[in-house]
Every structure is written in structure tokens, then in C-alpha cells.
Amino acid sequence: xxxxxxxxxxxxxxxxxxxxxxxxxxxxxxxxxxxxxxxxxxxxxxxxxxxxxxxxxxxxxxxxxxxxxxxxxxxxxxxxxxxxxxxxxxxxxxxxxxxxxxxxxxxxxxxxxxxxxxxxxxxxxxxxxxxxxxxxxxxxxxxxxxxxxxxxxxxxxxxxxxxxxxxxxxxxxxxxxxxxxxxxxxxxxxxxxxxxxxxxxxxxxxxxxxxxxxxxxxxxxxxxxxxxxxxxxxxxxxxxxxxxxxxxxxxxxxxxxxxxxxxxxxxxxxxxxxxxxxxxxxxxxxx
Length: 287
Hints:
alpha/beta; five-stranded mixed beta sheet; 33% helix
């Protein structure tokens, strides 16, 4: 049987001789005093309602049904996959302000995606600054002579971030998952269409995600889909996920955005964008 330190290095459930050992039954998790070298620092990293928690921590078959959008097996495989980066980066940002939701800036090169930065409770101007810096730094790293394109979620507080980036004359593409889809007969909205595209990319083995990004993997595995009365595909709302005890899928939403065909739309500019949002009129005023 493996030695104690090797057993305790993982937060996942372990199986020996056909017996499943659930992490909550381990001494360190149950509150007993365990030396650090024996795993006293073991921590749980997944929401208790997510399929990954059920599988990796409890050692049980995860709660997977026909309405699961992306199977945990697909995300686990994507975490083990290694793609060569294309050096043609694009970034996407899902914007939060205050509360528990997470602002996520994600980077993509071909099928390779990684979370570039996350933060909580920053104001919109600070968030715009982080995105502008990410665009500049990634551009410098890639050796490009123009700014890296950014696609930014605009509903809620995201509109102000888009306005500021446009005012700085940066190539920013606004994204609204509530807009009409390209295929109106098959999908309820753009969010459903883009998530379905993401699902297909996972199924076809076209995505490489961070081996250590358990938050993204858990969020992807927790989202459900369904159909409306017209037979169109829809994706579970954030409010419905919260009712199931799950957090907002901010990282998963950003992944859906960054693979969206809308990310290839022409960036807005300050002249054409003026007046289109709550801060657009400020761009036209002489200061």
C-alpha cells in the first residue's frame, strides 16, 4: 500500500483493493490532528455540489445526466492534453464588480486556453486597466506590432469597461450572450449557441485547458442544458445554478466567449460606439 505522504498529497478519493476511501473520512479532513508531512494541510478545492467533487473527493459516481452540457471526462481529458500554442493570441473577459462573482481574463491561442488573471470587487475603471495591461503585455510577449484583440461581456457593468477600452482606441469586441443566435431555429440565444460550440470542441478533442484549473473544470462539468417549447437549445441560467447551490460559472462563461465566432467581429471604435451605452455620450463631450 502507498506510504502516508503520497496518499495525503492528493485531495481526491482513493481506491485500494476495490475499496473507495472518501476524503471526508480521512483524519485531516475530519478535524483530527495530523502531522503536516502526513497530509495535515489537505484542502478541498471544489464546490460540494459539482460532479468533480462527487468523483474526486467522495469517490462516488458523479451526478451526470443527459442534460449535462460537458461531461467531466471531457474536461479531465482536456486538462491532460498538450497543444502547441499558435502565438496568435486573443483574450476574453467576463466582468464582475462587487460580490462573490469573479472577474476573469482568459487567453487563447488556437485550442490552448488559460486564465490570465482573476480578481474580485474592483471597480470598472480598474478592471479596464487590467484588461488594457493584459492586451499590451500579451502583445509584447507574442512579438506583435498591434494590440491583441479583446472580447468583453457587456451586460451589467461590462458596458463601462468596453466604453473605456474603446475610448483608449483598443481593439475591443462587445459580447452579449442574450443576443439572437446565428442559427435562430436551433438555439435560444447567442450564449446557448456558443456554449454548444464549446461542447462540440471538447467532444472533438480540440481544447487544452490548465491541468491545475479545477475551478474551470468544475464549472464546465456543472452546467446543464435543455430545450424550450420550440425545440431550441438553451443553457441553464446563473440564477438557476445558484438555486442548485453552485457559484456563478464565470470561468466557463469566459471560455464560451473566447471560442465564440463573435470574437472575430470587427472591433468597435470610439466614434461609431459613441452614444450606444450608458457612458457613450461622455465620449462626445468636449472636456
